Amino acid sequence: MRMTTKHDVEQELKQTSNQPLPKGLDQQIHLGMERGKRQRRRWDLVKNSGLSAAALLILFVLSVNFIPSFGPAASNIPGVKKLVELVEYDPGLKDAVDNKYVQVIDESDTENDVTFTIDHLIADQRRLILFYSVEVQGDIEALGLDGVTLTNSEGEKLEGYGLGSSPLTLENGKGSARLDFTFNQDQEFTNEMTLRFALEEHVREGILNGKKLDDPYEVTFAIDQDKIQASEVYEIKQSAAIEGQEIYFEKFISYPTSQVLYLEVNEDNTKEIFHMDSIRLENEHGEEVGTYSRSISDGNKRTISFTSDYFKDNEKLYIVAEKLMALDKGNTTVKVDLDNEKLLEAPDDRLSLRDIQTESIGDGEKGAVALNFGVDTSGMEQEVFYVLSGEYQDATGETFFSGSQAASAGSENTESVYQFYLDDNTYESPLTFQVSQYPSYIEGDIKVRVK
């Protein structure tokens, strides 16, 4: 049997980029995303010393099942099937692949009878996505990456980024996934970069609490600077209000892998506006051309990222919103009495504490402590809410962080289930949390032109 070479993959990428999208592909992307919003989502945070606390609060990662319905059409595209599957939920990355905005790497390291290979990458000034595969000699079923660092050719560790990944599930000892670095500011790469990390066997889905494999990994790979395309910057400098809450839109930047909106909420607003995932981008035809992906808060300033539309030719672009998630300032605290399993404080009676459970991870060993909440979603379009930010304090004032949360829609679509997994520590009760999502909205009509 003839082996596939790096040259073969490069040729297949060139051929694929010149072919039209399969009929109905864009529609499947949209429908898949809408369904994905209503499906259970497991979030998994990859630990990174260069990630700020503010970014950690919001940079969670969708499981690989985010869009269950989209896939067959993309799978019919000739060549690079694995790569196409790994970008299927992100239409901007799909456009990047279609436009040959991909670099073939094929660099590996083998430790612990596990071979880790960086197969491809997509890079711009804001984001670096590494597509990797593993091959295992043994009975490991799922792996996660821990202690990830990225170093340039001068030996300097890159900092100021969010790092996303999903649990790596193996079939017949093989699997593939992606590692996604999203930088808070524009980033310059050297011609060679080095990825270092440890692999950890997952004991429970979505939680990095398994056995860490002994030897760390190190993979050095090249980045072709000539293949990194420049961003497009649009100054907005315009204010808009919704139910009396003012927002100043500063600028908008379009990158090959994402679109980023910079705004600031007025400090005199009477309500706390959360991370604005209902804001969307529309072109001159009223078509949505960017889907919300993440946001970072720094005081009143917000940086909101959308999937990219960089490779499309839109004559006009608008920021549009009819409602935003918000609560009155001073009403965004949740307190939980761990000893008596009671909810001491909440924004209102739509949030309830069902119970507190210590989950077993096998052989009688105790695992994560889960706070199980119920969220009243009666009459709501959104069926699940990740209610709390990852940062919390105990009664002594000490601050902790947890990056693991889960949510699912209830059977009657009137109450969703929300779980917050506590960091493994000894706490002085009660615990105090801040709300990051809640079924409370302000409504209006915002439409601001970008270009």
Structure commentary:
The protein is mainly beta. The chain has 3 domains: 6-31 and 38-227, bacillus anthracis domain (Immunoglobulin-like), CATH 2.60.40; 232-329 and 441-449, Sandwich (Immunoglobulin-like); 333-435. It has helices spanning 6-17, 25-36, 53-56, 72-75, 81-86, 91-98; strands at 41-42, 103-111, 114-123, 127-136, 142-152, 161-164, 168-169, 174-183, 192-201, 217-222, 232-242, 245-254, 258-265, 271-273, 280-283, 288-290, 292-298, 301-307, 317-328, 333-337, 342-345, 351-360, 366-376, 388-393, 399-401, 405-408, 415-422, 431-435, 441-449. The strands form 6 sheets. A 5-stranded antiparallel β-sheet has the order 1-26-27-23-22, with no helix packed on it. A 5-stranded antiparallel β-sheet has the order 2-3-4-8-6. It has a 5-stranded antiparallel β-sheet with strand order 11-12-13-18-17. The radius of gyration is 22 Å and the shape is globular. The relative contact order is 0.13.
